[in-house]
Structures are given as C-alpha cells and as structure tokens.
Amino acid sequence: MRHGDKQNNLGRKKAHRDALLMNLACQIITHKRIVTTLAKAKALRKYVEPLITKTKKTATKEDIMHNHRVVFSYLNDKLAVKELFTVVAPKIAARPGGYTRIIKLGIRPGDNAEKAMIELVDFNEIYGNAVNAAAEPAKKTRRSKAPATKKAAEAPAAEETASEAPAETASTEETPAAE
Q1: Where are the alpha helices (DSSP H) in the chain?
Q2: Structural domain of residue 148, as residue ranges?
Q3: In angstroms, how far is the first alpha carbon of the chain from the final one?
Q4: How many structural domains is the chain composed of?
Q5: Predicted TM-score (pTM) above 0.85
Q6: Residues 21 and 53 in one domain
Q7: Whether the predicted pLDDT of 174 surpasses 60
Q8: For the packed helices 125-162 and 166-178, what is the interaxial angle rounded to 10 degrees?
C-alpha cells in the first residue's frame, strides 16, 4: 500500500530516480529550458526550486560556502553550480519563489506521453518583458496614492484661496470622506 506516499517514483528505483533528477536539474540550469514528460517536469520542479532558493545571498561567507556545498551535493556538476550562483542567482534575487514554469506541449506520438517544457521564469524574454512592463505601473500607482491624497488635501485649500466654484470644492471634500 502507498497510503500517504507523495513521492512520484517515475517508474524507477531510488538511485535511478536521483540520477535522473540530478541530470535534469543540471540541464535546466545550463540551458534555462528543457522539454521532457509532464511527470518528470513536476518532479523536477520540486527538486530544483529549493536549490535555487539556496542561491540567494545570506549574511556570512560561511553560509554562502555551505550553500555551495549543499547545492553541489544535489547536482554533482561544478559548471551547473557555478552557473546557478553567478548567472541565475542575481536574476531571481527579488523573486520570492516560483522560479520555474511548466508549459504543456501535447502528447508524444510514439508512446502518447504528455510532453511539457519546464523553464526558468526570469530567463524567458517573451513572457518576462511583458510581465515586468505590466507590474511596474501597478507599483507606481500604489506608491502615488499617498502623495495624491496629500495633494488632494492641499488642493481644496488652494481652491478656496483662489475662490473658484463651490461645486469643485464639494466634490474634493467628498472624496476623503468616502475613503
């Protein structure tokens, strides 16, 4: 029985599964995207995301070296570890998680297996630019609300001194009450 067993065995023994995930992780770090089966992509996501999290900068040099050694124990590839800490880590520094994206590609004609592309999110030029462009105005509007309310509070005083129409001052006085 497999009650409570959440490990996807991928039809392999433990040593074979570990070697498979190690090789897939090295390839995704090196090439930034790979095409594999959907089951392997989902298993790889659970394997590689904690490793990417370990690349974020920590306080001391000993912690950084410790993280290098821990990641190397999972990857066993010096070039992949170097790529992960020098190229990938600076790009994902601000991201709180979700470093990979899985896109389904349909079925494989030979055995009807579901194919998927797994990629590092920050390295996709097509999706990355649109997301950043859409995210920046949202941040600006949130930040600009606080100064806008101060300007709105100063605006009625300026309008009263300029003795403009009372209808405009009434509309500006209702907006702070509604908030």
Answers
A1: 14-31, 38-53, 61-75, 78-83, 89-92, 125-162, 166-178
A2: 131-178
A3: 58
A4: 2
A5: no
A6: yes
A7: no
A8: 130
